[in-house]
Description:
Blueprint: E1 2-6, H1 11-22, E2 26-31, H2 34-44, E3 50-54, H3 60-70, E4 76-79, H4 94-122, E5 126-130, H5 143-165, E6 171-175, E7 180-181, H6 184-188, E8 197-198, H7 199-211, E9 216-217, H8 221-232, H9 235-249
Parallel strand pairs: 1-2, 1-4, 2-3, 4-5, 5-6, 6-9, 7-8
Helix pairs in contact: 1-7, 3-4, 4-5
Amino acid sequence: xxxxxxxxxxxxxxxxxxxxxxxxxxxxxxxxxxxxxxxxxxxxxxxxxxxxxxxxxxxxxxxxxxxxxxxxxxxxxxxxxxxxxxxxxxxxxxxxxxxxxxxxxxxxxxxxxxxxxxxxxxxxxxxxxxxxxxxxxxxxxxxxxxxxxxxxxxxxxxxxxxxxxxxxxxxxxxxxxxxxxxxxxxxxxxxxxxxxxxxxxxxxxxxxxxxxxxxxxxxxxxxxxxxxxxxxxxxxxxxxxxxxxxxxxxx
Length: 251
């Protein structure tokens, strides 16, 4: 078995790599940091075969190159690469937001479509798309990031139903964690106002759910209740609540 993990140099991606290696998966690890990937490869080289790819997946050509190199050799695809940014929509950097869309949406869409098509042909394979609790909410002060995660969530849901109707053995899941202790908040320039889950917990929980072919993966009871509450709350009230939460994050 072989897994390809994007955004593998730290946080969830790194922990997925170690946990899958413990289960005997060979790994293709993709990220921009050569130094961090080298450290992971050295730590795992006596356990499984680890290949690293140093590339920026916000560049579309790199995404196609990655697929062409590994098509036909991957059993599990984990689309984990992504980042966020906080601030008023009129004040945040357009270039940064377009880069975010390229990474959070375009690269994930391409890899999902290409590898899924291959999986369907052989009627096996599994994909995990990493979204966020943000997928269920409007995101004032993080408008672009929340929108990208809504895309990931809804894309995965739609694909699941198409596969189910065809009675395909290919599996697809979406992970929607709440605040998690990774490097995300540093790049997004926010400070979570609630206690974060650990990356170790989120990845362990997720792998258990993947074995059961769970479609929607929301780690922790508290986060499940948050999703339930969001669905019941009137939209305009929810907008006010989310704005206030986001505003506190930036202080």
